[in-house]
């Protein structure tokens, strides 16, 4: 009997040990774990205020470009084979009459098609699914309210007189930027072989003949630049970012995104392509990276240590491309110490209805003694929410192609358990850090609106971004470097795409067109 009990005990302990190992094992969700792959895959996209194109910049083509190459190190000299040509990158709505598309496309749908096309050129066969590229995202907050280009919560908008919220210098203020490209090359540096490439440009179209780094020092000239560098066979890629605003373009954004390799990504209502072969799901995923901020972008720079984006309807169901009922959900940690909390006892409409402690305890925003007001910058509820708790603020109805919900948080001790900064200035200028953030656990605890009585949404995060949004501040410069970015998910629990709610079609691409779908075939 004693031996039987001992045997049973050993079996039980063994099962528990195996189970513990099973649930704690992690694997990378991205195709380029830790940014260490020599054969880089990187792309760039540009959006207007409502995450569309509107009109292509002169001689630039559609604002989707890529730098994807394979490196052959066994030859001397080292050989780079680029998968995307200059002709590919210059494709635009006016010069691409035949690339396997079927049905008429407008300039916005064409940009979506081009992203898929570039994805086919860059795609790497990975497990559990193929992946394409890291994505550099540019966006301008300018909006011509008299042109009524941006929809109102996914519905037709009507002209109205501009106010101080939306900057616009007049007709054409929502233009796409000029995008210039230095293809990645290999060079010698003190006996080492190194790789380097870049995208750079400006929103000021009259500067087309003189787009150089000198624009950073010139007032009233916008500028952006992303340079990537790596030593062959060693370490991580390092991405060096610069963003400058101007009087004409005072509201600009620059992020490096890890997007889903298929389905929707945050804020994008077309099929997408990206680096994430597995979409992370709350509460079990971790994000790691090394960040050094050199210049902050001024007091209006909402520098996002972490910006995650997803999409689900107010009834908890996954998004399906209907821009009137889909809702983009964002959570953003702002680490600029100049950004203060708008969430206060005297301004409850700027606070989420409750804060959830790690043990699951909820604290209502009216609880003056226990609610952490200083942990929140601002919260706004989706514009199509039918039962928001009073008082409330609806989110800006124009800066997304569909309704959106935004929850912005600030460094505070309540985030300590998740690895996030706990005090102002942590990780800011002069304090470079390697972060390991329990984004999954935090994103599960954060408040997001749902209609009463509906089952909680499965929170899949199809975009994990880092960068800054310089908000209505002219002639400000932000500069930072990022490397070793990684997203880890549980090994036995990752969710293949064929089970994901974000998948729209298995063949071709579905693009929404006034509530209908236009099929686009890839040649």
TrEMBL record:
Swiss-Prot/TrEMBL keywords: Signal
Domain of life: Eukaryota
Span of the signal peptide: 1-25
Pfam families: DUF7705
Residue ranges constituting the DUF7705 domain according to the UniProt record: 27-487
Protein name: DUF7705 domain-containing protein
Lineage: Eukaryota, Viridiplantae, Streptophyta, Embryophyta, Tracheophyta
